């Protein structure tokens, strides 16, 4: 199984940006943590991060026919981007939305998630462990497909 982990704007600033909200773990250690989880689970994982909406759309389109699952934290584009939602729907790859912080307890403008409408599940407010949970959801689902 091939999983693509996509992070949107400002997630490359993990460890520096608002540590009280997003924690002190940096982006590279997040990638290491995800890689070792993937190894443990026997799946392959690729990463992509961009601060640009179009680049995120391009990457989702390129995933078509290559990846079996997508874990995505679209950052602030969660709350604004119909284009990213449409891309996920277009490729039809099972996708899980992740948010490090508990967006449900934050500002009103964070209560809308466009991407959620195209996702098989959402993992919210579990810190960076949420990425691992999202992978497990995709792995579990893929076992279901075998039956
Ligand atoms: C976030 C929550 C978003 O509202 C915010 O814009 C982010 C990160 C999270 O992981 O908690 O950039 O997606």
What does the model show?
By secondary structure, this protein is α/β, with parallel strands linked by helices. The chain has a single domain (2-142), classed as Rossmann fold (3-Layer(aba) Sandwich). The chain is built from five helices and five strands, in the order βααβαβαββα. It has a five-stranded parallel sheet, with helices on both faces. Helix 2 packs parallel to helix 5 and helix 3 runs parallel beside helix 4. It is globular, with a radius of gyration of 14 Å. The model has no long low-confidence stretch (mean pLDDT 97). 1,3,4-trihydroxy-5-OXO-cyclohexanecarboxylic acid is lined by residues 10, 73, 75-76, 78, 99-101, 103, 110.
- By secondary-structure content and strand pairing, the structural class works out as alpha/beta
CATH superfamily: Dehydroquinase, class II
Helix content class: 25-40%
SSE run: EHHEHEHEEH
Q: What gap, in angstroms, lies between the N and C termini?
A: 15 Å
How many separate domains? 1
CATH fold name: Rossmann fold
Shape: globular
Q: Measured on Cα atoms, how large is the radius of gyration? A: 14 Å
> Could you list the spans in which at least 5 consecutive residues all have pLDDT below 50?
none
* Order of strands in the sheet with most strands: 2-1-3-4-5
Secondary-structure blueprint of this entry?
Blueprint (H helix, E strand, L loop, with lengths): L1 E6 L11 H4 L4 H15 L2 E6 L3 H10 L6 E5 L8 H10 L3 E5 L21 E4 L4 H18 L1
Parallel strand pairs: 1-2, 1-3, 3-4, 4-5
Helix pairs in contact: 2-5, 3-4
Bound molecules: 1,3,4-trihydroxy-5-OXO-cyclohexanecarboxylic acid.
